[in-house]
Structure prediction request, 91 residues.
Amino acid sequence: MTVSVRVPTILRPYTQGVSEVSAEGSTLTEVLDSLDASYPGIKGRVLDEAGELRRFVNVYVDDDDVRFADGLQTAIKDGGQVSIIPAVAGG
Prediction:
């Protein structure tokens, strides 16, 4: 299943500057694996050393935050969209 992945500016060096790329998979884990196969190193910027989502990275499948769904096992339908969004802190 092909999905669209929106890539934030900070990760675009991994995608040669492209803001939206395609990946394969029916879960977020599969999509991240596919993304990393095409753009080596990007998965390590989204997941921590324990294989969990980094604290300051938000990931949405369509319009749903995966932290409030099934996390890395969140299902993604064919043609769905994954958005990787770095958290912004302010004071």
In short: The longest strand covers residues 81-86.
